[in-house]
Design a protein that fits this description.
The complex is a heterodimer. Chain A is of the alpha+beta class. In chain A, β1 and β2 form a beta hairpin. Chain A is built from 25 helices and 23 strands. In chain A, the strands form six sheets. In chain A, strands 1, 2, 3, 4, 5, 6 and 7 form a seven-stranded mixed β-sheet that branches. The longest helix of chain A has 21 residues. The two termini of chain A are 43 Å apart. In chain A, 56% of the residues are buried. Chain A has three domains: 197 residues, Aldehyde ferredoxin oxidoreductase, N-terminal domain (Aldehyde Ferredoxin Oxidoreductase,  A, domain 1, 4-Layer Sandwich); 183 residues, Aldehyde Ferredoxin Oxidoreductase Protein, subunit A, domain 2 (Orthogonal Bundle); 209 residues, Aldehyde Ferredoxin Oxidoreductase Protein, subunit A, domain 3. By secondary structure, chain B is of the alpha+beta class. Chain B folds into two domains: 142 residues, Alpha-Beta Plaits; 30 residues. Chain B has four helices and seven strands. In chain B, the strands form three sheets. Chain B has a two-stranded antiparallel sheet. Chain B has a two-stranded antiparallel ribbon with strand order 3-4. In chain B, α3 packs across α4. Chain B is elongated, with a radius of gyration of 23 Å. Chain B starts with a strand and ends with a helix. The chains are: A alpha+beta, B alpha+beta. Chains A and B meet through β14, α7, β17 and β19 of A and α1 and β2 of B. β14 of chain A pairs antiparallel with β2 of chain B.
Chain lengths: 656, 181
């Protein structure tokens, strides 16, 4: 009997149509847990570093997390992993919704795709019955409408469907995979799905997921439930409302968008509009958001309501997620935020990343204004800002005209366009669009997160540590008083001493050692969430969350029957994290790639930044180039990885 | 006739508040597993959230009685312009549809309000719905004690009405003589 996990993966060879239900090694639970951990292991073992994103050998893995399908609140993440066409590194965008739990109930932990289908197909997984079905009639359909069409066609209203739109079919590097109220967007998973000829994956399961010590598990969950109630009733007073709760901080309930619209940069991550949020806009946006939202909605087994059903004028109903409610309006630099209700649905149907896409469209506008793109490139484009964004979005999704270049993201488009376009690619790290945020003083914590994390996109690296110091010492003291999530009491002093200005402020404080400890802790929490399939909004991505390093080992032990303590859990996720780094090192990632956008902060400190990077690498057990040392790998039972890296000359003796 | 006290147990479903997370389904299936909480499977749940997100339909429905035969006709409701599924509010485990049946055996499922020893304070779905969609109430009402006629009596009355009492007596006499003879 396997507990928490099903113990089976589905292996699908799209070239031959061969489908196998493969029992997994139970030992992998002890060494890599599940979710991201076990997926990374498969990529390391089976995808050689020479594999290009659109090679048949690039595995596309849809994975549940270890706790998906159990009564653990918010365990609903589906992790999609593949070599990204954009970064050429191992990407793992996640989505919420309902898909992963349904997969577990169908009896599988993961679906692993290899090779390519000769024609467009969709996959129908119904417990033990798995079919590859023709999808010719779905070609060109939207990612949202495809989900409904498949449910109707199968006469399975409870099937959960993950689908791509035309952007994915056309292998746009920014193509997303859409599912229910969620999407797996970053890094181009939709393009890999399209390249493999998969339009959608539908799943329906009616089997059991077992818990080793269910009674004990539920006792721990009662404490979690109590804490969720407490946090929902007691938002954190010292921070702005949008950061004060649990769940996704951009949740649809907040209408005060002063912070997003004034602190984040508009256009191609260029300009802050510090006086944008007038009383007039505040009133009209509140009215607009409240009337557009038909209902707040959740992902599977989550008490929070971070999504919403949107009905806006004549736009067909759709579900909104996260910060997507503003990104297009800010990218297009329009004053009327309602524009976003209109364009977001089309973008979701096309299936594109709401973070990267608006920046890319704005990048095209900049190139036009600079004379690098011409009137001919924009032939037929409406003159107004809104019309122009719709037009550009169509071109990108369809890969028509300049859209064909833009569909690869700003980094690749800039290099293909040339003529100085590279200068306008100012907001990418590792070829991937970053947050549209431009700040003053270098922040050592964010520097390390932007530079080093394998996720590449910052929003899923940060979390438990406040984004900025509080003005008043008494507020800081009040905040740390009740902070059981901390891994160590000493962090309280770090926070209380952290000042907005002066000796104990950025960039020199927190010190390199402190910064390393804080970032390492936050990263570890993300790695645990990603192995378990827990939404970061309930663990790693918010202040004082219900799940943390002290209750996770208890939940995992009760769920699996494998007794693990905090040190043991930390070792498991460190193993996965270092293996992930080794995958990317083996693909050529080095210290030179670990750079936040140049203009992210106005005040930069090159020498300090180098020290930060070196110090953090050392803390992590990595060498000067950011490669895990042989000792570190051996300590984590990854001697075979060290050998491989040595054989390839990536790790050299004496470099530790 | 005597008056007696009867306990009425009600779960109020405020469907407008439901956000479709299905926590109720998961906890129901976990609670009713043997041993308790050993497995999870919403398909075994005695509460199901009927969901059509894009039509703004989220309706938690509890499993009621098993019925061997489906109704002669079906119902379909339209409320405030929203068209609900056929039999959308019906709680029966019925041959016309798949819900409220054990996925393996097809045996009917029925909500028992989490009957437990010692008793639960509230049914588990109510306890684990953190958005107050589900509310549990118990109230006592006084009702007339009914004395229900037994099946045999009901049957005899029906036959007597149709054929007259004399014919029934004759038939019974004939039958009993026949058996003896």
């Amino acid at each position: 009997m396997r507990y928490a996990e099903t113990g089976y993966n589905l292996e699908i060879d799209l070239a031959t149509g061969n489908i196998e239900r493969v029992e997994t090694d139970p030992k992998l639970l002890e060494t890599h847990l599940g979710g991201l951990g076990t997926s990374v292991k498969i990529h390391w073992d089976r995808v050689p570093p020479e594999t290009k994103p659109f090679d048949p050998g690039n595995l596309l893995i849809f994975s549940s997390g270890l706790l998906c399908g159990t009564p653990a609140f918010s365990a609903n993440r589906t992790l999609v992993s593949f070599i990204s066409p954009q970064t050429e590194l191992l990407a793992y965008p996640m989505m919420g919704g309902f898909w992963s739990a349904e997969l577990k109930y169908a009896g599988y932990d993961k679906v692993i795709f290899r090779n390519k289908s000769p024609k467009l197909v969709y996959i129908w997984i119904h417990n033990d019955k798995v079919e590859i079905r023709d999808a010719a009639h779905l070609k060109g359909k939207g990612a949202l409408e495809t989900q409904e069409l498949i449910r109707q066609e199968l006469n399975q209203p409870n099937a959960q469907v993950a689908a791509i739109g035309i952007a994915g079919e056309n292998r746009a590097f920014i193509a997303s995979i859409e599912q229910s109220r969620s999407s797996s967007s970053r890094g181009g998973g939709g393009a890999i799905m399209g390249d493999k000829g998969i339009k959608a994956i539908a799943v329906r399961g009616t089997k059991d997921v077992y818990l080793a010590r269910g009674g004990e598990f539920m006792e721990h969950m009662k404490d979690v439930k109590k804490y969720i109630d407490f946090r929902n009733e007691n938002p954190i007073k010292e921070v702005m409302p949008i950061l004060s709760g649990i769940g996704s901080p951009q949740m649809m309930k907040h209408t005060d968008e002063k912070w997003h619209t004034e602190s984040f940069a508009w256009g191609n991550a260029r300009l802050r509009r510090k006086d944008f949020w007038t009383d007039e806009i505040a009133t009209s946006w509140e009215k607009s958001q409240k009337s557009a939202i038909g209902r707040f909605i959740s992902c599977f087994n989550c008490p929070q309501q971070c999504g919403a059903l949107i009905t806006y004028k004549d736009v067909p109903a759709y579900m909104m997620k996260c910060f997507s409610k503003l990104t297009y309006a800010m990218g297009a630099y329009v004053d009327d935020l309602d524009f976003n209700w209109r364009i977001a649905r089309r973008a979701f149907e096309y299936g594109v990343d709401s973070f990267s896409t608006p920046q890319i469209l704005a990048f095209a506008v900049e190139l036009k204004e600079a004379g690098i793109l011409t009137d001919k490139d924009f032939e037929g484009c409406p003159p107004d800002k809104e019309g122009r964004f719709f037009w550009l979005l169509d071109k990108v999704a369809k890969r028509e005209g300049i859209g064909d270049l833009l569909a690869d993201g700003t980094y690749w488009a800039a290099r293909r366009i040339g003529k100085g376009a590279e200068e306008f690619d100012h907001n990418t790290t590792k070829k991937h669009e970053q947050m549209n945020i431009k700040l003053g003083m270098l922040d050592p914590l964010y520097f390390l997160m932007f530079a080093t994390n394998e996720k590449v996109s910052i929003t899923q690296i940060e979390g438990n540590w406040p984004q900025a110091p509080f003005q008043k010492r008494e507020d800081r003291e009040a905040f740390v008083k009740d902070w059981p999530q901390l891994p160590d009491e000493k962090f309280k002093k770090y926070f209380v001493d952290w000042e907005p200005r002066g000796e104990f402020s950025n960039p020199n404080y927190p010190t390199i050692q402190m910064s390393s400890e804080i970032v390492d802790w936050m990263e570890m929490l993300h790695n645990i969430d990603d192995a378990l399939g827990i939404c970061a909004g309930m663990g790693s991505f918010c202040l004082k969350p219900p799940y943390h390093i002290h209750n996770y080992p208890k939940l995992i032990s009760a769920a699996t029957g494998m007794d693990v303590d905090e040190a043991g859990l930390k070792k498991i996720v460190n193993r996965s994290r270092n293996l992930h780094r080794a995958v990317n090192n083996r693909r050529g990632m080095t210290r030179a790639d670990e750079k936040p956008p140049l203009d992210h902060w106005k005040k930069r400190f090159p020498e300090l930044e180098e020290q930060l990077l070196t110090g953090y690498y050392k803390f992590k057990g990595w060498n000067y180039n950011g490669v895990p040392t042989k000792e570190r790998l051996q300590e984590l039972d990854l001697g075979y990885v060290a050998e491989d890296l040595q054989k390839r000359g990536i790790l050299k003796d004496g470099q530790d | 006739m005597a008056r007696i006290k009867k306990k009425i147990k009600t779960i109020t479903v405020d469907a407008d508040k439901c956000n479709g997370c299905r926590s109720c389904e998961i906890i129901c299936s976990a609670f009713h597993a043997t041993p308790k909480y050993s497995s999870n499977n919403p398909a075994r749940s005695r509460i199901q959230v009927i969901r059509h997100p894009l039509r703004d339909i989220w309706v938690p429905v509890f499993a009621g009685e098993y019925t061997a035969a489906e109704c002669m006709g079906r119902d379909k409701y339209i409320i405030h312009g929203k068209e609900y599924d056929e039999c959308g509010f019906c709680r029966a485990s019925c041959p016309s549809r798949d819900i409220f049946k054990e996925p393996d055996s097809g045996l009917p499922l029925k909500c028992d309000l989490c009957d437990d020893d010692p008793p639960q304070e509230k049914p588990l779905c109510v306890q684990w719905c953190l958005n107050d969609v589900l509310k549990y109430e118990e109230r006592e009402v006084e009702v007339e004690e009914e004395t229900k006629p037994e099946d045999l009596e009901i049957g005899l009355d029906a036959l007597a009405n149709k054929y007259g009492l004399d014919k029934i007596v004759d038939a019974v006499t004939r039958k009993s003589l026949g058996k003896k003879g």
